[in-house]
Amino acid sequence: MLLDTLLGRYPDLHDQIAPLQALYRADPRPTVAAIGDYNTGKSALLNALMERDLFTVADRRETRQLQTGVAHGLCWLDTPGLNADPSGADDMASQQAMAQADHLLILHALGNGELAPDLLPLLEEHDATLVLTRIDECSEEAQEAALATILQQWDGPLVLCSSTRWKLGKRVGETSVLASSGIPALRQQLMADAAGWLARRHRRFARLKGALEQILQARQIQLQARMLKAQLQPLSARENLADRLNQIIDTLNR
Amino acid sequence: MAAPLFWLGGLLVSGVVTYLATRESNTDSEQYEDPTPQGPNPASRRQGELMLEQLCRELNVASPGITTLQADPQGCYEALRHRIEREAEQAAAPLERELAQLVQLQAALAALTLPTRGADHE
């Protein structure tokens, strides 16, 4: 593949080529990735949004690599928890998901209180929605206090979701319970927004490609200059070769 | 009267013999001191050698040596010129290849677009 060839040839351009590779390899559908600390309910939320039990849900560190699901015309990426793997491999998988996704769902368990400092840059630098999860696991007072703190940190898109409540609503067939889980509204919102994501992805790809093309153009000019120098050098050397040989012969005959 | 003449004649012969012997000895001595009276000055030879080495270093070619240069200056010039050209070709060849590859990659990159929606996995 062209981008692999380019990276093999110019490894110093990794930072310019890798994001292009990620976009090129991304699913052609609008893509959403769930990102967050370990055990914030990423897999459960995605299963609820997809309405399919595709990703394994567990209380332990279950997701260890990037996983993909397709539903409702969207591609859904489940990622390993942030900061859970000392080797950093899990975080690399999350980075990969962030590079491929058109929209990020940044998950934070409401009961954990304020947002971890490493989540804020993710929210600010990407097209992202903050999803507060596990809302059933704390009292109303604790919820309000945590929400007040979080709202001071982040004033962008924010939703409260409970995949437990959504499952319950599904089981009992109660629409009001389903609605109170926040899942249907979030799904609707994502599906509506997704219409513009692919056009934006193409624009991003074109912008990144343009930057890389400029660098390669500069390299081409440098290479042409080196070639010209290599071609001119022998011409000047040849020009005074006869004179210098004559000087040497004169010296020898002195 | 005859005796002094005899002695004078003997002295003359002896002097001539001695002179001839001395002259022969001097000629031998001169030949020993300068065995190559018709070659170039060694200092000039060394300087010429250094100049040729310097030139060849600058041109990045092997020195033909001053003996070859003196024996056939024109042939030496042609050989050096040929070597310079060959060296230049060799130096430019990888750059030419690299440039051709880069131009090819640039053309391919210019045509690269994101894949459109493929098979539906839903």
Give a nutshell description of this structure.
The complex is a heterodimer of chains A (254) and B (122). Chain A has eleven helices and six strands. By secondary structure, chain A is α/β, with parallel strands linked by helices.
Question: Describe it for me?
Answer:
The complex is a heterodimer of chains A (254) and B (122). Chain A has 254 residues and is α/β, with parallel strands linked by helices. Chain A is 57% helix and 13% strand. Chain A has helices spanning 2-9, 14-25, 42-50, 89-100, 119-125, 140-153, 163-172, 175-180, 183-193, 197-239, 241-253; strands at 31-36, 67-71, 74-78, 103-109, 128-133, 158-160. Chain A has a six-stranded mixed β-sheet with strand order 2-3-1-4-5-6, with helices on both faces. In chain A, helix 2 packs across helix 4 (89-100) and helix 3 packs across helix 9. The mean pLDDT of chain A is 90. Mean pLDDT of chain B is 74; it is low at 20-38. The longest helix of chain B is centred in the last third of the chain and has 39 residues, at 73-111. Chain B starts with a helix and ends in an 11-residue tail after the last helix. Chain B has a domain at 41-108. Chain B is mainly alpha-helical and 122 residues long. Chain B is 78% helix and 0% strand. At the A-B interface, helix 1, helix 10 and helix 11 of A face helix 2, helix 3 and helix 4 of B.
What attributes does this structure have?
heterodimer, A: 254 residues, alpha/beta, Rossmann fold, 6 strands, B: 122 residues, mainly alpha, 0% strand
Q: Report mean pLDDT of chain A, rounded to a whole number.
A: 90
The largest β sheet of chain A comes out as: 6 strands, mixed
- Low-confidence segments of chain A, given as residue ranges, are none
Strand order, sheet with most strands of chain A: 2-3-1-4-5-6
Number of helices of chain A: 11
* Number of E strands of chain B: 0
- Mean pLDDT value of chain B: 74
